[in-house]
Design brief:
By secondary structure, the protein is α/β, with parallel strands linked by helices. Helices cover 36% and strands 18% of the residues. Bound molecules: 1,3,4-trihydroxy-5-OXO-cyclohexanecarboxylic acid.
């Protein structure tokens, strides 16, 4: 196993910073990557941060995380969280631990966000802390 943490981000998260800042805050995905790099250095972890608007890329990267011996995956699947049986199955298909991450708390929002197919397969979840959700999830991954 390596000391690399894959941080996989799904659709629309490339627009963080300008996307509904009242819900998601003003940090960009690059800002979050910087926070994770800083905390990762302290924890002795490498960060491999990626974003795609395409479901299949996220499936491929989950497979890759296992093939490359990643220590863990932090997964903010965006709206695919609530729709994707393919991501649910991919998480269950690998032994690499996956921690679900959300900036907002989907369970306090619209009813269609209350179901998480990712959460039914992931080992843990950090949500509702804004950009800090990612840092707390990284700290959990470090302790695995
Ligand atoms: C999100 C929550 C999802 O419901 C939403 O579709 C997103 C972002 C979050 O980080 O709070 O795209 O995953």
């Amino acid at each position: 196993m390596t000391n690399t943490i894959y941080v996989l981000n799904g659709p629309n998260l490339n627009l963080l910073g300008m996307r509904e800042p009242e819900i998601y805050g003003t940090d960009t995905l690059d800002d979050i990557a910087g926070m994770l790099e800083d905390r990762g250095r302290e924890l002795g972890l490498e960060i491999d941060m990626r974003q795609s608007n395409h479901e299949g890329h996220l499936v491929d990267w989950l497979h890759e995380a296992q093939a490359e011996g990643a220590k863990a995956v932090l997964l903010n699947a965006g709206a695919y969280t609530h729709t994707s049986i393919a991501l649910h199955d991919a998480i269950k298909s690998i032994r690499t631990p996956v921690i679900e991450v959300h900036l907002s708390d989907p369970e306090t929002r619209e009813p269609f966000r209350h179901v998480s197919y990712v959460g039914m397969a992931a080992m843990d979840c950090v949500k509702g802390l804004g950009a800090r959700s990612y840092v707390v999830a990284l700290e959990k991954a470090a302790a695995l």
